[in-house]
Amino acid sequence: MIVNPQLFNYKLIIGSLIVAVVSLSVFGFTTYETEKTQQQFLEQEKKLVEGELSQMLENYDEITESSVILSQQLLVAKKHTTSALEKLRLLKSDFSVFARFKTEFYELKSRNNFLFKTVDSLTVLNDRLKRDKILSDDKLDQQKNANKSLSTLNASLKKTIKKGALLTANSFHAKAFKSETKETTKASQANRFEVCFTLAENTLTEKGAKELYIQILNPLNNVIADKGTAQFGEFLLFYSNKQHINYNNKVIDVCTNIEARHNDKPFIKGVYYVSVFHKDRKLGSTQVVLD
Predict the structure, then answer these.
(1) Which of 40, 172, 226, 254 could make an S-S bridge to 286, C-beta 3.0–4.6 Å?
(2) Rounded to two decimals, what is the model's pTM?
């Protein structure tokens, strides 16, 4: 059999071309699939990073309203995050460029995480301080209320002590006399009154001289043996007799005679009202009935 060399060479060339075309087709398809897969991966990565950046911005919007101390730092960080998000959205599908961006993103994320943790710590501290302030305010209010109660109690005690320190008297009695020693109940015979009482013992009362005023009013409400008036503030006292007593906190029996003046006689029939005063305060009273 005779082989034509030229025809053989043609067949060899055609076979080689077919193999080359098939190889190129397979390589092209493989490269296309690889690039397609890489593109999908890159888009997925961009979405993940974009999601994290968007979440950071939401976090900034939440904390910038409540944090005053780091407000300036938060604004700068938010600005950088917004810039990074805009840059990412404009980024082309290039692995080398995206790799550099991702490195910058991790640095930004690290700084932001540190800032968020600082804000969280400050928030916890601020909440604790607010609680402490509320507790302090409550304690202060309680102390104010306690002080107010003590002030009220002290005022009440002072009032009680002041009242307890007042000069007091008892055993008031009065008689009418027609002479030095003879008692009478007849209005026509009487010309003087004897008034007696007892100053009580009181260790709280201030020691010293006390002025006591005796007032006798006839049935017509006129003062017997009028000695004038004594004024204590707005209180005006008409009195019949004044006694100076040196009080030493012990019991003192006091008796005094009140002589009728010429224009008091003759006494009229009826009830005579006898009262004893220390300054403007009435210590006690009694009555004498003349018929």
Answers:
(1) 172
(2) 0.52
Total domains, the chain:
2
Residue 13 within a domain: yes
Q: Among candidates 282, 278, 191, 192, which has minimal Cα distance to 243?
A: 278
Q: What is the mean pLDDT of the chain?
A: 78
* Domain span at 44: 5-125
What are the residue ranges of helices labelled H in 64-90?
Answer: 71-90
DSSP per-residue string spanning 11-55: HHHHHHHHHHHHHHHHHHHHHHHHHHHHHHHHHHHHHHHHHHHHH
Residue type for position 109? K
Bridge partners (DSSP) listed for residue 131: none
DSSP bridge partners of 289? 271
* Domain contains 154: no
How far apart CA 60 and CA 65 sit, in angstroms, is: 9
Model confidence pLDDT, tens digit, residues 257-282: 999 998 898 999 999 999 999 999 99
8 Å CB contact between 260 and 189: no
What is the SS3 assignment for 279?
coil
